[in-house]
Each structure stands twice: as C-alpha cells, then as structure tokens.
Amino acid sequence: MSGKALIVWGGWDGHEPEPVAKVFAEVLVKEDFDVELSHSLDSFLETDKLKGLDLIVPVWTMGSMTGEQSAGLIKAVSSGVGLAGCHGGMCDSFRENTDYQLMTGGQWVAHPGNDGVEYEVKITDHNHFLTRGMKDFKVKSEQYYLHVDPSNRVYAVTPMPVAEGPHTPNGRFEMPVIWTRYHGKGRVFYCSLGHNESIVRMPETTEIMRRGFLWAASKAD
After folding, report:
1. CB-based contact 82:61 (threshold 8 Å)
2. What does the alpha-carbon distance between residue 213 and residue 24 come to, in Å, rounded to a whole number?
3. What is the percent of the chain where pLDDT is above 90?
4. pLDDT tens digits for 159-193?
5. What residues does each domain of the chain span?
6. Contact call for residues 98 and 65 (beta carbons, < 8 A)
7. Which one of 42, 82, 112, 187 has the lowest number of neighbouring Cβ atoms within 10 Å?
8. CB 71 within 8 A of CB 110
9. Which pLDDT does position 2 carry in this prediction?
C-alpha cells in the first residue's frame, strides 16, 4: 500500500458527510491507500494508531470534541501525520476549539447568498503540484467566507463580493479557496469547495482533493 488513511465522518447531515467520506475513500483507494472509515471521534483517542497513519481526513461539520479527542488528533498531526479536508467538514468543525482552528488555518463565518451562488475559482499558483495545469473554473454552490490565518500558503482564491451582504461595503477582495500550512511536522491541506457529494464529485474538486491528499500525506511536492 502507498499509505494509511483514516477518514472520520459525522456532524451536520446537511453536508452529506457519509457520501462525501465514501467519495474520498474511493479517491484514496485508487492511490493505493489502505483506508479506514470511522463514524466516531473516539478514533482520535487511539494515539499510537494515529501516529502510524500517513493521513487523517475529517468530514465533520460543527459538533464538538472532548479535550482528549482534540489532543489526540492535534498530537498526531504535530508528529507528522497529514491532515486534509474540505468545506465545512474541516473548517466549520468544533467551533469552540481554537487549538483545532490554529491547526487548520481557517474558520468558516459566512456564505453570503447561501447555496446556489455562481462564482469563480481563480488559480493563483500554477507551478505547485496542487494546481499545476489547472485552469480557472466556475462553481454554483456556497461561496465560503472564512477567517484565514495569514501564514497559509494560498493556491486559489475567489473574488468577492458576489452576493450582497454586510461585507459588501468593504469593497472587492479575494477570499482563499485552497491553502496549505504546517502544524508541527504535519502537513495541512484545505479546500473550501465541497458543500455536498455533487460538488465533491465535480472533476475539478475531485482532482484538487486527490492532489491535496497526496501532498498532505507527503506523497507529492
């Protein structure tokens, strides 16, 4: 096997966590990963097992973790296990947990216009493995407004505002869509696309996530 991956799914059903987790499992199996799917945050308590993984994929919108669960996940990533996820399944999770937010590099705060907004995703780095050869594309979904860590390395953005909201008077700006960072020795990858299974199965999203998984698991640079 190329690596070992754990996908932990649950939380708010509106993001279709189980179907999305299965799509991610399909992607990883095609890349020769040994994949385990879990529907329990107690998976983060198995610290020795976690440290033997190459990749952890959270698909868990909102919810809460215990201190022990949080510590287990964060210690695993800090030790060198990769973390990769998308949309609310990674960056609208465990809202009260600032240690988790520090690790992921961002937190959802709004999606102006809600679902069904058509917006553009602009590739800003055409030389990195994550986005090499990819072209700008449009998506009709939620356009995520995130509070973002300034130390993130950003590879794609979306121009805002598209839908009107209280942010509109601030003028035009670009919101990060794809980023990476490090947390200790661990690689962290995030993509804000992925509201439901249909968006995850878009060719562009699937390919971005495939590359993000490989990068976070230290299988590509």
Report:
1. no
2. 9
3. 98
4. 999 999 999 999 999 999 999 999 999 999 999 99
5. 3-216
6. no
7. 42
8. no
9. 82
Q: How far apart are CA 136 and CA 114, in angstroms?
A: 22
What is the number of other CB atoms lying within 10 angstroms of the CB of residue 205? 23
* Structure tokens belonging to residue 125: 């780095």
Assigned CATH topology for domain 3-216: Rossmann fold (3.40.50)
- The residues, ordered by sequence, that sit 6+ positions from 190 with a Cβ below 8 Å of its Cβ are 84, 85, 86, 90, 91, 104, 105, 106, 178, 179, 180, 212
- Please report the DSSP string for 17-55 in residue order: HHHHHHHHHHHHHHTTEEEEEES-GGGGG-HHHHHT-SE
For residue 76, give both structure tokens. Answer: 């695993």
Instruction: Show the tokens assigned to 138.
Output: 């449009």
Strand 117-123 relative to strand 153-160: parallel, antiparallel, unpaired? antiparallel
60 φ, ψ (degrees, to nearest 5): -145, 95
